[in-house]
Design a protein that fits this description.
With 152 residues, the protein is α+β, with helices and mostly antiparallel strands. The chain is built from seven helices and three strands. 49% of the residues lie in helices and 15% in strands. The longest helix has 23 residues. Bound molecules: FE2/S2 (inorganic) cluster.
């Protein structure tokens, strides 16, 4: 049912685990099967994926496809990684049973989610603004407005 390549990547997953200093982390899940995949990227200033790791809580095919996906994008540019399709992952694994194709989709999505997170961090999109950290005073301003509304 599974190719030797799939069994190999399932039994000896490559790049498993978190990456120290990762600057792009994405997590995706499939609502139907409940499997979850997390991808960690360490992207250097030249936009090259220096290191990559994954954590997959899911079926064997999900482990194999995430393992293969990390191999395919390691050392590649962000654009090359964005172009990684689930069919390229399946091809590299020399095939997957039709019922398991969605597992490879999860791998493609996890890579894209991690790259999106990398850009979000760069643009400051995901940086939560807390008064203590940023020096802003939003909460206090709002509190004062509320105080004054009825009682003043
Ligand atoms: Fe859902 Fe494999 S069964 S990812």
């Amino acid at each position: 049912m599974y190719t030797e390549k799939v069994m190999d990547h399932f039994s000896n997953p490559r790049n498993m685990g978190e990456v120290e200093g990762a600057n792009g982390v994405g997590m995706v899940g499939n609502a139907k099967c409940g499997d979850i995949m997390q991808m960690f990227l360490k992207i250097n200033d030249e936009g090259i994926i220096e290191d990559v790791g994954f954590k997959t809580f899911g079926c064997g095919a999900a482990v194999a496809t995430s393992s293969m996906a990390t191999e395919l994008i390691k050392g590649k540019s962000i654009d090359e990684a964005l172009n990684l399709t689930n069919s390229a992952v399946v091809e590299a694994l020399e095939g997957l049973p039709p019922a398991k194709l969605h597992c490879s989709v999860l791998a493609e999505e996890a890579v894209k989610a991690a790259i999106d997170n990398y850009y979000a961090r760069k643009e400051g999109r995901d940086i939560e603004c807390t008064c203590a950290d940023c020096g802003h005073d939003h909460e206090h301003e709002h509190a004062h407005e509320d105080d004054e509304s009825e009682e003043a």
